[in-house]
Amino acid sequence: MKDINFTLNGTIVTVKDGLTILEAARQNGINIPTLCYYEKLPAIGACRICVVEVTGSRTLVAACHTPVTEGMVVNTHSPTVLATRRIILKLLLANHCGTCYMCAKANLCELRYLAAELGVELPGFEPTRRYYPIEDVSPYLVRDLSKCILCRRCVRACAQLAGHSFFAVGYRGFDSKVIVDTDKPIDKVDCRDCDICVSICPTGALSKPRKLPYEKKGRPLIIKS
Prior knowledge:
By secondary structure, the chain is an alpha+beta fold. The chain contains six helices and nine strands.
C-alpha cells in the first residue's frame, strides 16, 4: 500500500493510502469530533459533526468517509469549521429532550460532552422538540426516543454487529425516528444477552432497565399492612 502526502492543519504528513481524513487526523494526534461514527462500522456521515475544510471543495466535507488524496490540504479547526459544528450541534440540541439530570448517561453522554467542548449552550432560537413516551415493555431494554439524535448507530450495530436487524429508520423529515417492526415498542428475547445498542448509543436514548434494591438482593418486596 503506497504512502499519501497531504497537508493537515498547515503540516505536511504522510499516511497510508485508503485512510479517511478522520483516521489520518487521529493517527496524527488531531481530534475531530464525531457522533454517528463508530470505528467498527462503515462510516455514513449522518451527523456532519466531523466536517472539515478541504481546499478546492465548494462545501465542507465529512471527515469520517472522505478519503485522503495526494496533495490534499485539510483544515480541521478553522473558524468556518468550528462555527459550522456549533450550528449543527445547536440544531441537534433544539430537537433533543435536554433533561440531563434525569438521564441514565448523564455526564457520559457524548452529545453533552461535545456541547461543553464546543462551548454550545441552549440554542438561540425557539426549539421544536420531539416528545415520545418511554418504551419499557421489554425487560431487557428501555428506549427514550425523545433523546434520540438519529445517528443510526443502533440501527447499524444491531444489523452488522449483533446480526438481528431489529431497528430501522421510519417516516420522513421532522417525523423521522428509529422504529422496530411496524413502529412497535421493542420486546425481543434476543435482546436479553445483548447490549450492543445500549453501549453504542451516544445519548441516553437506550438504556438497561434499572433494578430496584430488593431485586438486586433477590428478595421479594414485603409490604406491611
